[in-house]
Design goal:
7-stranded mixed β-sheet; 6-stranded antiparallel β-sheet
Length: about 700
């Protein structure tokens, strides 16, 4: 969704329509929580743009997600299907990382927003803990029809929706009879012998009776608008905040007993719904004067607080990063939003200097000034935090200006966290989070950021090693593939090699185009088994042999047969697939021989496209006596011949035959004016996320129109 603007708050009609449709979906399906994700092609990432039924801070780890993230909504979008998770146990089994951050009881559905023009994103719906583990056909129908409605809104919108910095909160209005509100309700609550209070979904006290205030030991006007675990020192325990989180997420009653000093035990019963939480506070007279904690059955069991969940989630996410780009992207997409920061600079130690390897929210001139500072720099606190190994936090420019007078003026930022990235005493780099406005760092923010610094250091060090190895592999791969393809009158050509998404092993794909005469040429493509230096070396030998036999004038079947016998002489255990196409431009004819390779596609000038029916021979290296039959086919003027390796169609979770059929349809419907763009379109059709599980090679050849 390129070109979608970022908007801090202003929204237009399409955003209002989407919010209203999300709220209606939550009501229609009986869900308690709803979230709308849209694909940001700039990432590509998933952005949470609208939310109802949960506080925004609950969603900090989920506001930006890679399309490849192991979460239900990403799976739903990638696989274009409804994903249902009926229980916490199922979440633990299928999505352990998500379960670690949301250890609550609930049911969840994720559905893709598949429009007529594109896949826009997805929706996530959550139900209370008492929802059945399985969905009914009617319920699935409601979810899918709601997703289709949202997709149609996006298809028909006159302009793209905005991607807000924070998700927009869509209100879920509760319907109550007038008699249930106002003074009558207050009088009713005040007459009860126990205390009563109300919390909004953010955890703030919105209503409290005089009995509840007395039991809590503080005047009502000092409690209204506050969170109990923040305004009452004796409730400043992570377990109490997590009881509230459990109630909000699971929408199930929660009860717990705690001690109000000096010796008053109070039982809290929390009853949540879509608008907030009603709490009943009852003194436990039977425990008065007893210093021992009572044994109370909790529904469900307590768990650590939200910041700890964030740390678990981010730690797990960092373990999945591979390249430096991945690490920096994760910090931008997940760590900055989690702490409300707007700017980032990540520097790596390189030959006594701090080289900037990633940044966000800074103009180019500032980055240029901060790049390549010496490790001993006193221009910013980076040198000191690396020397001491202790993070530095500055809530406003005046705090920094005392020791670093010019530093605050360099970027114009108003608050900073300087995190040293150190492994076993060895400095790896420095990570700087910055804010556009003054920001006081709480104790838990400092603790979590300090812990994250060590995790980022490990991930960054591992990623830089990977990038160095990957660069060597790419350079080796490029030496084994043709630098350029020959120019042939009457034949347009384009080729592309794409290595697998991650890995530092050399691929075995190869291709070539050989000019035999003014009107004849040979196109070949193949794949050596495995990914290793041995496979790469064999690939180079096979390509050289094919080149030699072809230029010597051997026919297609003999070229493959002789290369097959050569493999026996090389005593290799690896097998090779290969497709060899002799092209006669004057006669508009193809003669093709195949050694176990996927058949090519042929798109004629009028758009008709088909898979060429090629009689295949054995893979090279199986049997030295193998014969390779040839197939003759027409290459009409304006026709495009598509050769490719199996990595293009062997998509996990999809049958290769179905993927090939889809590729044929896409090739028939796509403009072939620009062959380079056409290659990109073919790859994106089968691999929209770009995370290839195998190398992909595509070679396109188009004969000139008469």
């Amino acid at each position: 969704m390129s070109g979608i603007e970022e908007a801090p708050g202003g929204v237009g009609s399409v955003d209002d329509d989407l919010g209203a449709a999300l709220a209606e979906t939550v009501r229609r399906t009986g869900a308690s929580v709803g979230g709308l994700y849209l694909i940001d092609d700039a990432g590509p990432t998933l952005r949470l743009v609208a939310l109802c039924g949960l506080p925004v801070e609950f969603t900090a780890p989920w506001q930006r997600l890679p399309l490849t993230a192991p979460v239900p909504v990403a799976d739903a979008i990638r696989e274009d299907r409804l994903v249902w998770v009926g229980s916490q146990d199922e979440m633990v089994g299928r999505y352990p990382r998500a379960a670690a951050v949301l250890p609550y009881r609930f049911a969840l559905a994720a559905a893709p927003l598949s429009g007529a023009r594109r896949r826009w994103g997805g929706i996530v719906l959550m139900w209370s803990a008492d929802h059945p583990r399985e969905t009914t056909p009617r319920e699935r129908g409601h979810i899918n029809s709601s997703a289709r409605h949202l997709a149609r809104l996006l298809d028909d919108a006159p302009r793209p929706p905005t991607l807000p910095v924070r998700p927009r909160v869509v209100p879920m209005e509760s319907v109550r009879h007038p008699v249930q509100t106002g003074l009558a309700a207050v009088d009713y609550a005040e007459r009860l012998p126990e205390g009563a209070l109300g919390l909004d979904l953010e955890g703030r006290i919105t209503f409290i009776t005089s009995t509840a205030a007395r039991l809590l030991g503080r005047e009502a006007d000092r409690l209204l608008g506050t969170r109990p675990w923040q305004s009452l020192p004796w409730m400043d325990d992570p377990v109490h905040e997590d009881h509230y989180r459990t109630a909000v997420v699971s929408r199930a009653p929660v009860s717990f007993t705690t001690l109000c000093p000096p010796n008053n035990w109070l039982t809290f019963e929390l009853y949540p719904d879509g608008s907030g939480i009603s709490a009943r506070i009852t003194p436990r007279g039977d425990l008065a004067g007893d210093g021992a904690a009572p044994t109370v059955a909790r529904r469900p069991a307590a768990a650590p607080t939200g910041r700890l969940y964030q740390l678990i989630h981010l730690a797990a996410a960092l373990t999945e990063t591979v390249s430096v780009h991945d690490v920096v992207g994760l910090i931008i997409d997940q760590i900055l939003p989690a702490f409300g920061a707007e700017g980032l600079v990540v520097s790596g130690v390189d030959a006594g200097h701090l080289r900037i390897i990633g940044h966000h929210g800074y103009p180019a001139d500032v980055i240029e000034r901060l790049d390549a500072l010496p490790l001993t720099t006193d221009l910013t606190p980076a040198g000191q935090v690396l020397a001491s190994g202790v993070p530095a936090f500055f809530a406003h420019p005046a705090e920094m200006a005392g020791d670093y007078p010019t530093a605050p003026r360099i970027s114009g930022k108003q608050a900073w966290a300087f995190l040293p990235l150190i492994i076993s005493g060895r400095p790896v780099g420095c990570c700087i989070l910055s804010y556009d406005h003054p920001h006081t760092f709480t104790a838990d923010e400092r603790a979590v950021l300090t812990s994250l610094a060590g995790l980022i250091a490990q991930a960054l060090d591992r990623a830089r090693l990977y990038d160095a190895k990957h660069l060597l592999v790419e350079e080796l791969q490029q030496t084994l593939l043709p630098r350029t393809l020959p120019v042939l009158p009457g034949l347009d050509v384009a080729a592309r090699y794409l290595p697998a998404g991650h890995g530092v092993e050399v691929g075995g794909d190869f291709y070539d185009l050989l000019r035999l005469g003014d009107g004849t040429a040979v196109a070949l493509i193949g794949d050596v088994e495995g990914h290793s230096v041995t496979a790469a070396a064999l690939m180079g030998q096979v390509r050289t042999a094919l080149h030699a036999y072809a230029t010597a004038g051997a026919p297609p079947d003999q070229v493959l047969a002789r290369t097959n016998r050569l493999l026996a002489d090389l005593d290799s255990d690896l097998l090779v697939s290969c497709l060899y196409a002799h092209i006669d431009l004057a006669r508009h004819r193809l003669v093709i021989a195949s050694a176990g390779h996927v058949p090519p596609l042929l798109r004629e000038a009028d758009g008709r496209t088909r898979v060429l029916d090629i009689e295949p021979g054995l893979l090279l290296g199986v049997d030295t006596r193998a014969h390779y039959p040839t197939t003759t086919a027409a290459l009409p003027p304006g026709a495009t011949l598509a050769l490719y390796t199996d990595g293009l169609v062997e998509v996990p979770g999809t049958d290769a035959t179905r993927a090939t059929v889809g590729l044929v349809r896409h090739l028939a419907e796509t403009d072939d004016h620009d062959l380079d763009e056409l290659i990109g379109s073919l790859v994106d059709h089968n691999w929209p996320t770009g995370q290839y599980t195998d190398d992909i090679t595509v070679l396109l050849l188009r004969s000139a129109r008469d």
